[in-house]
Design goal:
single chain, 151 residues, alpha+beta, Alpha-Beta Plaits, SH3 type barrels, 2 domains, 4-stranded antiparallel β-sheet, elongated, binds cytidine-5'-triphosphate, metal ion binding, Asp_carbamoylTrfase_reg
Length: 151
């Protein structure tokens, strides 16, 4: 079968090996679908040796912060981040779910102090597969679906 060719980018970030169907969620969570952003490409359901099917997100002119990489790790733990400069992959790394998640996730407990005071949210990763985290402040545990809804 012919390989699907997706346009190469000159400068920016390619998020590869995203589980099939999760690419749009990555775009949504990183708020990349904004009118003033650069070129954004989504390839969905592409053949991949390792995953069977995968999504790829390419963002021209953007480099990710550590917080953004951590968000991707929670949505798409298998993802690879490629930093492209002058059409070449200058750097490549696998995302990794950190042991502690600070600042990027809201606690699902409406009474949690982190939702009311000027407190930076903090969670401990209890399990990576399936994904499960525990709030440092109220000890509420959250699983994948709730986590994705509170990023
Ligand atoms: N890419 C791109 N624009 C470039 C260079 C690379 O969009 N100028 C994309 C490729 O299409 C690919 C990803 O960046 O989706 C990684 O590129 P590369 O490391 O060359 O591909 P692989 O060796 O297939 O990557 P891996 O081993 O991580 O699967």
């Amino acid at each position: 079968m012919a390989e699907l060719k997706v346009t190469a980018i000159r400068e920016g970030t390619v998020i590869d090996h995203i589980p099939a169907g999760k690419g749009l969620k990555v775009i949504e969570i990183l708020r990349l679908n904004r009118p003033n952003g650069g070129v954004l490409l989504l390839a969905s359901n592409v053949h991949s040796g390792k995953l069977g099917r995968k999504d790829i997100v390419k963002i021209e002119g953007k480099f990710l912060s550590e917080e953004e990489v951590n968000k991707i790790a929670l949505i798409a733990p298998s993802a690879t981040v490629n930093i492209v400069r002058d059409y070449k992959v200058a750097e490549k790394f696998k995302v990794e779910i950190p042991d502690e998640i600070t600042g990027i996730l809201r606690c699902a407990n409406p009474n949690c102090v982190s939702n009311h005071e000027y407190t930076v949210s903090k969670f401990y990763v209890v399990s990576r597969e399936p994904l499960k985290v525990r709030c440092h402040y109220c000890e509420r545990t959250m699983e994948e679906e709730e986590i994705l809804g509170n990023l």
